Amino acid sequence: MKMNLIQVLLVVFPITFVIGQTKPTVYTFQGKFNSRFERSDNFNQYKGWLIVDGDKSLFTMKKDKGSLISDDQHNIDLSPDSIFTVYKDFESNSLLFDFSDIRQRTHVFADTLFPMQWIHHNEQRTIGGIPCLKAVTQFKGRGYTAWYAPSITIADGPWKLGGLPGMILEAYDDADQWHMTLSSIQEGAGFEKKHFESAIANGVEGFPAFASFVKKMFDRLTASLGTQSAVDCVDCQTKPRITIYSWEKID
After folding, report:
1. 40, 68, 94, 246: least CB-packed within 10 angstroms?
2. Beta pairing, strands 76-78 & 244-246
3. How far is Cα 128 from Cα 123, in angstroms, rounded to an integer?
4. Phi (first) and psi of residue 11, to 5 degrees
5. pLDDT digits (tens, 9 = 90+) for 113-145
6. Strand partners of residue 95
7. What is the DSSP string of 100-122?
8. Span 32-61, mean pLDDT?
9. 245, 251 in Cβ contact below 8 A?
10. Where are the domains of the chain?
């Protein structure tokens, strides 16, 4: 029996996403996140959902009910794209993430889809009864470890991570400030893609624009607080201190 070229390619090379997937699959994760990173401990429990619908996926990570983030008037944390929406589109090789500014207005920026260079290890682990392999990488100022399942031939994972020959079922940074582990897999409803598809079609600014946006936002905030101090204080010797803390490195 003769095989055409397409059939041969499918036999030789692993498929990075499930072709012809009829129903979306929801990968539910359970984990933690320290909103203060290494500066102090402020861990909260989070639940994450990775919805895979054909060659597109949506990841959302939300804080579990009952967990609180303590307030600090001297520091403002920026952790938008580590706890909010990340949309991936394999067909257009696109990745979008949401960022909420101080006024809770949502902005969408683009990033490179799976630019990380993974180093593979021989270590194995079973997660939810699924055999997984270990890989590590450096990505935007942090080191990450991922445990991926070769049996799930989808090159995706929680947050922005992915690009491995299998779904990432557990991931964490080197300091264990962010940690997500698979808790269940089940069929589910899809998600609304028009918003993201429209953004991609119209053009979305990339990570450098996001970094510039963050810096300008905090420059305005610092200037505003400085003006208030000058009005409310006579012969003040102190200046307002605003420090930018972002999960990903912003130069």
Report:
1. 68
2. parallel
3. 17
4. -75, -40
5. 999 999 999 999 999 999 999 999 999 999 999
6. 88, 111
7. E-TT--EEEEEE-SS----EEEE
8. 90
9. no
10. 5-246
